[in-house]
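Here is an idea for our session: we take a single protein and study its fold together. Start from the sequence, derive the backbone structure tokens from it, and show both lines together. Once you have written the record down, we can walk along the chain together:
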Amino acid sequence: GCFECCIKCLGGIPYASLIATILLYAGVALFCGCGHEALSGTVNILQTYFEMTRSAGDVIDAFTLIDIFKYVIYGVAAAFFVYGILLMVEGFFTTGAIKDLYGDFKITTCGRCVSAWFIMLTYIFMLAWLGVTAFTSLPVYMYFNLWTICRNATVVDGANLCLDLRQYGIVTIGEEKKVCTSSESFVKMCDSNELNMTFHLFIVALAGAGAAVIAMV
């Protein structure tokens, strides 16, 4: 009766694909949401404490790159929302329990090609997300250095530590944009919640990218 029908339906659910889809959505959501807010916080930090301004004209500066990354995040969120649904549907129709629901049937050549295409595409996206994870670790490393300088400045008396943006390629060699512990702006930056929040947002975004890689696997 109804109980047997429910058992058959539950048996037809591809639980591995379901868990992978949930993990994929969670990872992409964390990466896109936290990454977007972390980039916005980075813009405020550069403008407020490093006194950087947007370049006039079509010059590609750090702010232009941040805007490009934001648009990339919008595209990634939309694309993987659709791709997660497609993978889930494909997982339902390739589970072995479907045969018990609809009877024995032969696998068509088209079905084999579709499954092989999804597998190949997922492996390609997995490699791409490995690159995204490695790239996301760069701002985490930069903010960790900044957080360490703020921490050491309060521990070591009389230490004059400086952070130069030229070390990270954010500005050109000829443009000097640095903040030292002896300056008032550095003290305000270390005491602000904006620095701590941006740092932790990048950490969560990195964790989200790693979760997406695991979901792809």
About this structure: The mean pLDDT is 81.
